[in-house]
Design a protein that fits this description.
The chain is α+β, with helices and mostly antiparallel strands. The protein folds into two domains: 98 residues, SH3 type barrels (Roll), CATH 2.30.30; 55 residues. 35% of the residues lie in helices and 33% in strands. It contains three helices and nine strands, in the order αβββββββααββ. The strands form two sheets. Strands 6-5-4-3-7-8 form a six-stranded antiparallel beta sheet, with no helix packed on it. A hairpin with a 2-residue loop joins strand 5 and strand 6. The mean pLDDT is 78.
Length: 193
């Protein structure tokens, strides 16, 4: 079936308006961008987020309900049981994007972060065992309790503790990291950490 020629512009206009309507009504995402390394972390509506605001040491957390040009809405659902009945109570926080001071990393990180955390914990645990059990074992055997194994264990313990202390757990918003809303249709396919 062929359409008359005057229907073609109408069909193209209708198709263009349909495509445009998806961009107008699309929910925005929250983008945390590192301007020095060209790295972007995307938080979509429905994802959990933990952050601090300017002038407050308290950590806020919840799920992102919506993001607009200047603020985001965080939802925290509280389950209360009243005589066997479970009812949800929803609390919303309205946060201005310019008031965010730091955004904490998600619990699930990359494989490198996971390996780094495992190394820090493993070195701390193994070093502690060498430092505590090594002298006891040497004392029972009648040898000098402070020997080479003690120093190896102490080195492992100190290395593990230092690795745990210097593990970066948050992104400070300022000159290096920026928080801004982003249209989801403009995102590249691989944008997460």
């Amino acid at each position: 079936m062929t359409f008359p020629t005057f229907f073609r512009p109408i069909i193209c206009l209708w198709f263009g308006l349909c495509l445009l309507s998806t961009t107008i009504f699309a929910q925005k995402n929250l983008a945390l961008e590192n301007v020095n390394k060209f790295k972007r972390i995307i938080y979509q509506p429905g994802e959990p987020i933990r952050f601090q605001v300017v002038g407050d040491k308290k950590k806020y957390e919840g799920r992102i309900e919506s993001v607009n040009d200047s603020m985001m809405v965080i939802v925290k659902s509280i389950v209360m049981e009243n005589e066997g009945d479970a009812s949800n109570r929803v609390h919303r926080d309205y946060i201005r994007l310019q008031d965010i001071r730091a955004v904490y990393k998600r619990p699930q990180g990359s494989y490198g972060e996971f390996f780094y955390g495992m190394m820090a914990g493993g070195l701390t645990g193994a070093g502690l065992m060498f430092v505590v059990i090594g002298p006891i074992d040497a004392g029972i055997a009648g040898a000098d309790p402070i020997n080479t194994n003690f120093f190896i264990g102490a080195g492992m313990l100190i290395t593990g503790v230092i690795m745990g202390i210097f593990k970066k757990r948050k992104h400070r918003v300022g000159r290096k990291w920026l928080v801004k809303p982003m249209n989801p249709l403009l995102l590249p396919p691989e944008v997460d950490e």
